[in-house]
Amino acid sequence: MAYQMWTMRVLVLAILLCGGIPWGAVCAPAANPMDAATMQAIAKSIGFPVLPTPLQFLRNIDLSSNSFYGLHHDFFAGLPALETIVLDNNDLKVSSIEQADVVPCSRLRSFSANNAYLHDHFPNFFGNVTLFPDLERLSLARNHLWGVMHTGFGANSKISYLDVGGQTQNDDEKIDGRMDLFIPGKVNLVEAYLDHNGFSGLVPDATQLVNLRVFDASYNDLCGVPKFPSGTVVDLTGNPRVGGGC
């Protein structure tokens, strides 16, 4: 089909509701097949659009600040070149992002779903360097995620920016685990926001993370003596046992 031959500088997909059936309008193809393309979904919708054919050159997709409440399981399958996915400020009342949904996007460099009403186990697969060897930014703040962030999450990955802070205040819906068992392995970490969760155990020894500039683990259940590189901005407010024994 003609869509398969399109390469886009800017792709605008307008999702409209007509007689209870959503439909989309795709426009603005560009001439140069090597141009990075950006897609924005505009207007309110009852769910994510299902693209008719693969868009093989689309690299960036921004669906933020809409009213999407679902993610079709095949939505990203036709977008294999994606490097940036932004789903912020939606109302995805359909659980978390599943591994199978995003695995086709093996070139992914940035995934953001802040304030998107995700409510399920923390998606540890984003820390798998085999699945996502180029991932640099992971931002899942202000959702309803819970469960353990696995030991070694993101070890030796390219992740430089990690934000999972501000999950719900319900004690049953917080991310937990041992920071001292996954933070030291993030050799490229620059900024980490892990605040308002249920992490416990020792404050991680981050002295070897020479690029670290911001570390916010406020309002968790940490203990022990902080060890961070000189110049790092550290916030451990709300951890009354920090500075003492565990």
Give the tally of β-strands.
Answer: 16
**What is the SS-derived class?**
mainly beta
Largest sheet: 11 strands, mixed
Tell me the β content: 25-35%
Mean pLDDT across the residues is: 79
Q: Uncertain segments of ≥5 residues (pLDDT<50)?
A: 1-46
What strand line-up does the widest sheet have?
A: 2-1-3-4-5-6-7-9-11-13-15
Helix content: under 10%
Quaternary state of this entry equals single chain
Number of helices: 1
- Rg for CA atoms: 20 Å
H-E string: EEEEEHEEEEEEEEEEE
The rounded distance between the terminal residues' Cα atoms is: 63 Å
The shape is globular
What do you see in this structure?
The strands form 2 sheets. Strands 2-1-3-4-5-6-7-9-11-13-15 form an 11-stranded mixed beta sheet, with no helix packed on it. The chain is globular, with a radius of gyration of 20 Å. With 246 residues, it is an all-beta fold. The N terminus is likely disordered. It is built from 1 helix and 16 strands.
Give me a quick take on this structure:
The protein has one helix spanning 99-102, and strands spanning 10-18, 21-27, 37-42, 58-62, 84-86, 110-112, 137-139, 147-148, 161-163, 175-178, 191-193, 198-202, 214-216, 221-224, 233-235, 241-242. With 246 residues, it is mostly beta strands.
List the helices and strands and how they pair.
Blueprint lengths: L9 E9 L2 E7 L9 E6 L15 E5 L21 E3 L12 H4 L7 E3 L24 E3 L7 E2 L12 E3 L11 E4 L12 E3 L4 E5 L11 E3 L4 E4 L8 E3 L5 E2 L4
